Amino acid sequence: MPLKLSCATTDPSKASADLLALGVFAGESISTTAPIDAIDKLLGGALAEVIKHREFTGKKDQTIEIESLGRLPARRLLLVGLGEEAELTVETVRTFAARSARSANGAKATSIAYGIPGKLDAEKARALGEGLVLGAYRFTKYLTGERVPKAELAKATLLTSGKLDKVRKSAELGFKIGTCVCYTRDLINEPANELTPIALADYAKNVAKKHKLACKVYDAAAIKRMGMKLFVAVAQGSVNEPRMVHLTYKPAKATKKRLVVVGKGLTFDSGGLCIKPAAGMGEMKSDMSGAGNVVGFMAAVAELAPNVEVHGIIAAAENMPDGNSYRPGDVFGSLDGKSVEIINTDAEGRLVLADALSFATKLNPTVLVCNATLTGACVVALGTHCSGFYATKDELAKQFGDAAKEAGEQFWHMPLLEDLREQLKSDVADLKHMGDRWGGSITAALFLREFVGETPFIHCDIAGPALADKPYSFYAKGGTGQGVLAFLRFLETL
Ligand code: BES
Ligand code: ZN
Ligand code: ZN
Questions:
Q1: Residues 268-273, mean pLDDT to the nearest whole number
Q2: Which residue, 9, 211, 230, 259, shows the most beta carbons closer than 10 Å to its own?
């Protein structure tokens, strides 16, 4: 049964669910404050004891999880510290909802009830809906027999004292947005033998149909005909043909603003002739995370229905070693006419993106946002929970950085250091596609910038956070979809 969300004004102590998840603000008299006081009474004072012994003070991320042993209508109780009430953020609410849903999955619960003290504003109700879906998410498609999960969350109830209609509407929007982010996760988690560039384009087409977006798919011949020689070069070593996808959201009453988001869609990156070491190569099925983000983002845009025109561009290809692969030393033209000398065939992402960005620039965007699992260097710099981003203007960087922060996603502003531009000079062509090892994430960004002309440009290197080795915050293990919520927030600031 698919998960459903409803809202109710039921008192948490009377709520029946497999898991009752209660957010608790930091304070001294937790056990005597509603609704814990009523629950403690039903439990004969046992909860107050546990709170005392575990030194649970409602600090952020503290939890207590107990069985109710038939003394509450709820089978299990989870208390989650939310920190100070005055400092409650959207991210804290989303993470509370997500980690509770993860606990529910772990406890084989089919129903969950959420309680947060006080009134939920629209933003936080939406975050709760998002967190529910994002936390409940599991990728189980390929599991059989014993490995199939025994239970699935089917029912979630948001217990609230706020205006029910308003809260419901916002929570439902969050639920829908969360569902869209799960498209991204499914795409990332899908193995590369299944998710070829053609399959990725087909998936995008289906999402477009479902969410009433326009969708145009360019096949290998069309990509070639348009003159995307760098894109073709990367794809030529694979038997799986490349595809470019153009998704469009056009509102009836649009402002003059136009956002274009581009995603790297390498369904597998073996490194090509400059082949990667075997250890960790399997993770390169996630090298289409930028494209996955575009799919999830565009679907969420359709749900949000802003009055700004939004385009999503996906450059999908596979990077493989083959008799027909492109080689180091090769020189290719690009869509915008520059010639590029290939140094290392594993720096393929910036090549497909160069042509996709030139294409996107022709759409005349107010802002052009690129996102890609582009460099290991960015992961070395920022770790696996934070993406790097570059912007061609400081105001734009501020606007995007603030939006990501408000969305509760970690993005750090990186510099487009002009000194490093020199490394992209080639003896035989207009440009080399990479520089030396140091500052590798920056030179990649500088290379991309060559293909956007004067268009205000943001490039996000999501190589670290795209895939998680364990769940954290509101992210699942595996594909995370990190970026989609930041892009949505950014769109809302336009
Ligand atoms: N897809 C990789 C980058 C990557 C690394 C993504 C780790 C996720 C996790 C990219 O195509 C790549 O191989 N980049 C090379 C560039 C180098 C050859 C200049 C890298 O980062 O090593
Ligand atoms: Zn690569
Ligand atoms: Zn790659």
A1: 98
A2: 230
